[in-house]
């Protein structure tokens, strides 16, 4: 009797599960029919009903699948407002369910972003929520950058490529951008600024690959190194020096290429940041001290430490003296370009 009672309960539970599954399937069928018939408002409301029901039941995996499919369908049918709403709910579930961030979900979020029309105001809200959810994943930035690039929105594409690991696409896009809208005299400026900004964001990997792709793909750049353009040589040397952490080499490099660096006042500000990040150069105490002020302060301190250790047995001094920088650099430490916001 006990066995029969337990079996009966199991059968009832199985029947209830099947009924629930069939009920959900009926709802999904109704949603699909509404979309086919152009009843998008009704479909949207039914998806939201499923959202509240499944959230209450903590059926997060099923809900994520429904919301992603629903958002994709509505966006593909150009129901932008409803589609973005479901997309935001999708991210909301990812956050509240504490679903681990992984490539699968990041790619889905990136796909939804690509389906949202560029003119939809809520697109920015969706992107902000997505970036917060994944803590600025380079993979998401890569996906978003690719979307902006396809739209020829180079400013936003550049901003997100800087935070991605897709230096190959970044370099290709910069070649396209320079050839379509840049002056021939700016061929080295385009990549120099990009590399410096990547380094300021501690994204050396992207800086290196972007530089390699840009200089090899651009038809106006002769194969190097060495390059015909001094600024390109500076960037190439800089990428080698940051790995070494040798402050002296960094200082000499900046001195030797000072004239090239003066072509864009922002370079000195970026180099200040790079000095602090990779060479432990202290921040400039005032606006007037500039990049070389901070670097020389570190060098003097290191020399003082060295000399204090060698006082008992001083080495012969050379008559050659290192050149000091002759130009002062202006610093707008509270101002950065949009790309680094």
UniProtKB/TrEMBL annotation:
Source organism phylogeny: Eukaryota, Metazoa, Ecdysozoa, Arthropoda, Hexapoda
Tagged with keyword Heme: no
Family indicated by similarity: Belongs to the GET4 family.
Start-end of Polar residues biased regions: 314-341
Record-linked Pfam families: GET4
GO terms classed as biological process: protein insertion into ER membrane
Descriptive protein name: Golgi to ER traffic protein 4
Gene3D superfamilies: Tetratricopeptide repeat domain
Subcellular location: Cytoplasm, Cytosol
Ranges for region Disordered: 305-341
Organism whose genome encodes this protein: Lygus hesperus
Chief location: cytoplasm
Top-level division of the source organism's lineage: Eukaryota
């Amino acid at each position: 009797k006990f066995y029969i009672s337990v079996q009966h309960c199991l059968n009832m539970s199985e029947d209830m599960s099947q009924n629930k599954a069939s009920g959900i399937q009926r709802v999904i069928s109704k949603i699909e029919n509404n979309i086919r018939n152009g009843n998008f408002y009704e479909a949207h409301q039914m998806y939201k009903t499923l959202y509240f029901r499944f959230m209450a039941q903590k059926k997060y995996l099923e809900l994520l699948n429904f919301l992603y499919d629903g958002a994709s369908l509505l966006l593909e049918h150009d129901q932008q407002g409803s589609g973005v709403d479901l997309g935001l709910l999708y991210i909301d579930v990812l956050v509240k369910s504490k679903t681990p961030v992984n490539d699968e979900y990041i790619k889905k979020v990136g796909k939804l972003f690509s389906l949202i029309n560029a003119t939809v105001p809520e697109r920015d809200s969706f992107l902000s929520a997505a970036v917060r959810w994944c803590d600025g994943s380079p993979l998401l930035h890569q996906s978003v950058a690719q979307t902006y690039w396809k739209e020829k929105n180079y400013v936003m594409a550049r901003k997100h490529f800087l935070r991605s690991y897709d230096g190959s696409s970044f370099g290709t896009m910069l070649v396209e951008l320079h050839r379509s809208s840049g002056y021939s005299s700016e061929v080295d400026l385009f990549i120099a600024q990009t590399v410096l900004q990547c380094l300021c964001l501690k994204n050396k990997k992207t800086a290196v690959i972007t530089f390699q792709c840009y200089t090899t793909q651009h038809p106006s750049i002769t194969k190097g190194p060495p390059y015909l353009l001094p600024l390109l040589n500076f960037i190439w040397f800089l990428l080698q020096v940051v790995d070494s952490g040798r402050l002296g080499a960094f200082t000499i490099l900046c001195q030797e290429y000072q004239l090239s660096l003066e072509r864009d006042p922002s370079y000195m500000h970026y180099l200040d940041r790079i000095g602090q990040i990779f060479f432990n150069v202290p921040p400039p105490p005032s606006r007037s001290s500039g990049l070389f002020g901070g670097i020389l302060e570190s060098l003097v301190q290191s020399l003082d430490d060295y000399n204090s250790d060698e006082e008992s047995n001083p080495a012969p001094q050379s008559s050659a003296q290192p050149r000091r920088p002759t130009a002062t650099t202006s610093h707008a430490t509270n101002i950065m370009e949009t790309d680094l916001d």
